[in-house]
Amino acid sequence: MEVLAVLCAQPSAWQHGYAIARDTGLKSGTLYPILVRLADRGLMEACWQDEQPAGRPRRHLYRLTAEGLASATVALADVTPTVRAQARAPLSPRRRLSTLD
């Protein structure tokens, strides 16, 4: 859901994977498969940066399609009450351990 929230913050702006990873805290091995699945389902557009900045390779850029934005908005609205409830609930021993990872 973090990926969708980041992409919804600026839905028409192209964003590169490193910025999405930074904003979500996800590692590349988790983030890029999510981005690929979203693109495969037509919920996201992906393209290569037009210009190659000096000293580094071109970046792959991502943004939500109109359908992706609509789906993400619904998904985020559905999950928000659950996330709020979990944040207020005391941590079970299992949840306490998972937050240490």
Compile the SSE list and pairings:
Blueprint: H1 2-9, E1 15-16, H2 17-24, H3 28-40, E2 44-48, E3 60-64, H4 66-88, H5 93-98
Antiparallel strand pairs: 1-3, 2-3
Helix pairs in contact: 1-2, 1-4
* Overall tally of structural domains: 1
Main sheet properties: 3 strands, antiparallel
Strand and helix order:
HEHHEEHH
Secondary structure class reads: mainly alpha
What's the CATH superfamily, by name? Answer: Winged helix-like DNA-binding domain superfamily/Winged helix DNA-binding domain
Molecular shape: globular
Termini separation? 19 Å
Number of distinct beta strands: 3
The level of helicity is 55-70%
Q: How is this structure best described in words?
A:
By secondary structure, this protein is mainly alpha-helical. It has a single domain, classed as Arc Repressor Mutant, subunit A, CATH 1.10.10. It is built from five helices and three strands; from the N terminus they run αβααββαα. The chain has helices at 2-9, 17-24, 28-40, 66-88, 93-98; strands spanning 15-16, 44-48, 60-64. It has a three-stranded antiparallel β-sheet with strand order 1-3-2.
